[in-house]
Amino acid sequence: MYNCEVTGRRYTGVFYIHIAVNILIVRKIETAQPQDKPYLLKDGGSLFVRVQPNGSKLWWYRYRLGNSPQTYSIGVFSKVTLEAARKERDWARSMIREGHDPTRP
């Protein structure tokens, strides 16, 4: 059951939340400029590129195993393509669904 905070109505049943995935394009990552603080370029599905102040671009996958939030380092953008990072995210997600930590093979 769900209580709407705005209207106060009570809802029951199944709710579907559509999560946008695969929203990054290679050009956007290539042209991302470093800033004073690190920032994220999100691809959806908890996959993102972290752009560091020194200009490096790192792939990360954020997940939750049990109650603890975790991050899985996939690699450097120049060595890991967008498609390869998405495949790695999908592999890590399947490992998590089976109850395994993708950082410990």
What does this structure look like?
- This protein is α+β, with helices and mostly antiparallel strands and 105 residues long.
- The chain has a single domain, classed as 2-Layer Sandwich (Double Stranded RNA Binding Domain).
- 20% of the residues lie in helices and 31% in strands.
- It has 2 helices and 6 strands.
- It has helices at 26-30, 82-97, and strands spanning 2-3, 10-11, 39-44, 47-51, 57-65, 68-76.
- It has a 4-stranded antiparallel sheet, with helices on one face. It has a two-stranded antiparallel sheet with strand order 1-2.
- The mean pLDDT is 88.
Estimated radius of gyration? 17 Å
Beta-strand segment tally: 6
At CATH level 2, the architecture is 2-Layer Sandwich
Strand order in space, largest sheet: 3-4-5-6
Q: How much helix is in the residues?
A: 10-25%
- What structural class do the secondary elements suggest? alpha+beta
Q: In DSSP terms, counting alpha (H) and pi (I) runs of 4 or more, how many helices?
A: 2
CATH topology: Double Stranded RNA Binding Domain
Profile the largest sheet. Answer: 4 strands, antiparallel
N/C terminus separation: 39 Å
- Oligomer state of the chains in this structure: single chain
Percent of sequence in beta strands: 25-35%
How confident is the prediction overall: mean pLDDT?
88
